[in-house]
Specification:
389 residues, mainly alpha, globular
Length: 389
């Protein structure tokens, strides 16, 4: 799903599992959409993005997870370092560098870094999962890496006794403990507990992906269309009923997993139930009506490069704002554009009209994909020249 071994190749990978190709493309689109404060908000009034889409990415990873007693752990860890951590470092450093250039222009002063800044960045990576706002969504990569490694260790050494349904229940208990602990103690505990807590939070969704692949997928796919429509309607209806029992409708969601906050529901089971409803809804949705886009080259390319969109969409929001800023400073009348607020935050959006969000969303999705296409093109030519020499 994420950028890794295809780095530096112009060839377009074609995913054989078209359903999960579309599912991952939808998930990353939702990530970008949520950070524009919901331009499209597909079914968001009933199934908020922040109630399931990060667990859905873990579910997808679980579906493709093949760890068992024969797995070579050293090779497995090295593979995850290459496909997760190295791209994380590369994209984060690139975004950080562009951010400093933007800040230099916005402030008129060359960025200066105090002696403690490197330690601050390192501490942020080991706790929240990322070192800055403009690359904040990359926190998920660290959490996913740790979750996968911990899961591999557990399954490797407990494989003889492993039962997916039993482990799913145990992981759910751990998940509920995390929610209870976070609601009561997160502001008092060490920030270095954040990554272990996120690992426990995500573990049931990793196992759920495996259960779906091994035991449920064929049954799910074989359901007639009417039953699948019924599942979609049922998921929407359940969440509609749930909102009547929660103090606020948005209590269904949890929008700050990176800091293990935002669990506003009074019920510790809410994130687990919300995630499973959201995953089942969109999994069924794709299975029902996704076939027309199964051969889409764009959807395939988007699915193969979710990492680029995740790491760079906020940067491209800011690059669009930078264009507006330059135009504004050169006398172009941009009504209501707040240059000073843009200079102060990476989360500024020009609010001249609600439809401007579409421009930001397009920049956040198409910008990283266009950059990835250029990267593939340039590195492919370099590789071809090197072979010719």
């Amino acid at each position: 799903m994420l950028w890794g071994s295809n780095m530096g190749q112009l060839e377009r990978r074609s995913k054989s599992n078209k359903k999960f190709m579309v599912l991952s493309a939808i998930g990353i689109f939702m990530v970008a959409d949520s950070h524009t404060f919901t331009t499209f908000h597909f079914f968001g009034d009933f199934i908020p993005y922040n109630s399931f889409f990060m667990p859905m990415f873990v579910f997808i990873s679980g579906y493709f997870n093949k760890v068992d007693s024969s797995t070579n752990l050293l090779k497995y860890v090295w593979k995850k370092i290459k496909t997760l951590l190295l791209p994380y470092i590369g994209i984060s450093l690139f975004v950080f560098g562009v951010e400093q250039l933007l800040n230099w222009y916005k402030s008129g002063e060359k960025p200066a870094f105090p002696g403690w800044y490197l330690k601050y960045m390192w501490d942020r990576i080991l706790t929240v999962g990322t070192f800055g706002t403009i690359v904040e969504p990359m926190w998920f990569v660290i959490a996913l890496f740790v979750t996968l490694i911990v899961y591999a260790l557990l399954k490797k050494f407990l494989c003889k006794f492993w039962n997916s349904y039993v482990m799913f229940v145990l992981f759910c208990i751990g998940h509920l403990f995390v929610i209870s602990f976070a609601k009561k103690n997160i502001y008092d505990c060490s920030p270095y507990l954040l990554i272990p807590l996120k690992c426990l939070f995500f573990m049931p969704f990793l196992e759920l992906g495996i259960i779906y692949r091994d035991h449920l997928e064929k049954k799910h796919e074989s359901l007639p269309g009417g039953c699948k429509i019924g599942i979609l309607a049922l998921m929407l209806f359940i969440n509609m009923i749930r909102t009547t029992y929660l103090p606020l409708p948005y209590d269904l969601a949890f929008d700050a997993i990176n800091e293990m906050t935002g669990f506003t529901s009074p019920y510790i089971v809410t994130p687990l139930v919300s995630s499973m409803i959201g995953i089942l809804f969109w999994l069924t949705f794709v299975d029902l009506i996704g076939k027309p886009v199964y051969e889409s080259k764009f959807v395939n390319f988007m699915s193969c490069n979710t990492f680029w969109i995740m790491g760079m969409h906020i940067l491209f929001f800011n690059l669009l704002n930078f264009v507006f800023l330059v135009l504004y400073e050169h006398g172009v009348p941009l009504l209501y554009f707040d240059a000073e607020l843009f200079r102060a935050t990476e989360w500024y959006f020009w609010e001249i009209t609600p439809t401007i969000k579409y421009a930001y969303l397009m920049a956040g999705v198409l910008g990283p994909l266009g950059l990835k296409w250029l990267w593939d093109l340039a590195t492919s030519k370099l590789r071809g020249k090197h072979k010719a020499d």
